[in-house]
Amino acid sequence: MSGTLIANTPIAVDFWRIQKKRHARLFFLSHMHSDHTAGLTSTWRHRIYCSPVTGKILHHQLQVKKSLICSLELAVGHKIDLDELGLQTMTVTLIDANHCPGSVMFLFEGYFGTILHTGDFRYHPSMLQHPPLNNTRIDVLYLDNTNFSPNKKLPSREEATKQIKDIIKEHPEHDVVFGLYKIGKEKLMVELAKEFKSRIVVSPQKLELLNLLELEDVFEAGGGAGRISVVQESDVNRLNMNHWNQAHPTIAILPTSRPAKEWHKNYDVHVVPYSDHSSYQELQEFLNILKPCSLEPIVKHQMCEVLLKDYAQPLKKPLLEIKVPPSVQVFMMGLGCPERYGQGKAAKRQVVQAARQIPKGVVFEALEEHAHASKDLRGELQSVLNSCAAGSLCHTEDCTNRPLSYGPKKNDGKKGRYSILPRKCVPWRHIKKL
User: Fold this and answer.
1) Is the pLDDT higher at 95 or at 388?
2) Which pairing describes strands 89-96 and 140-143: parallel, antiparallel, or unpaired?
């Protein structure tokens, strides 16, 4: 999982390697599993939008500054600017993803249409029975397709929980070790604690995290408190199984949809298909009701992409044909942005370097091709240019403080091409190379 860059927008979901894609400007975190935070560290310096629970875990685990964490309430539309001037905005709504504590789906609505990014999720019918998804046309769906395979049969969580309880009842004299990720399956453990009247033993570090989630008081750090304990999934191995069984008869349970390994049977390790991702049948139901116009699988797999094509409805206006508003293009370039470059000659050099690396997709086309453009569009562009000249977008020390007109540069030999930046901020020779 390397995250998602949504085409023709400054939006990035679970994507943190911005040195490769500099046009990403708005960053969203769906949940705190490690495969969705790769590249995110305490040195991160851009605002992150996430759920309140994820925000707490993010600061606790990765020490990201609280000032950069923007926690958004679920099931409420939030207006976010798509440029420096507020000319273009979008609405984002967070929806419970039913995956792990704090996990959410993102519903984006703006000039690009309506986009739903599921992150990791376990489908439940209630998701589509209430706003905002009960009566919304989805132009593009980024889908968690982890289990989208006709050959992969998964029970419901309730059925899987019953299987786990039966295994524990079959071993009344054994200690039980669960191999889990750092986050996830907390509700399962609370239910087992009540069923077997046992405290759940965890590490001190795990207990700190669980206290943030404000769960029921069934967890405890230190040995001897109960017969059920939790360790990292990777700690359930041959060496530890031998060690645990030397002290007391012990079984291990791995609640995961991944297949069992050969050695598991010989060491009393039980793999139960308890999954926090939607099953194939659940995904079919979700797609048949939602009827998205276009589908993008989050997990790239050729066979899966072929199967998913049958569930997409014809898209009247493909995302790739949607024109990015001029002010958003400036925002995506990041040129002249004070929070990114600051002021002075050193800032100017950074701007020039960034200009060289801007993808061709954000360079304006020839004016002749846009002669039919509306007065509103031209007015918006003039607004951006004037704001840049006034210092709203450009903060280099030798920027000209006068309104700029759009059009080709005189005597440059490149008719029809133009820059939306002051000539002295980014020399024309750098823009024309893009």
Assistant:
1) 95
2) unpaired
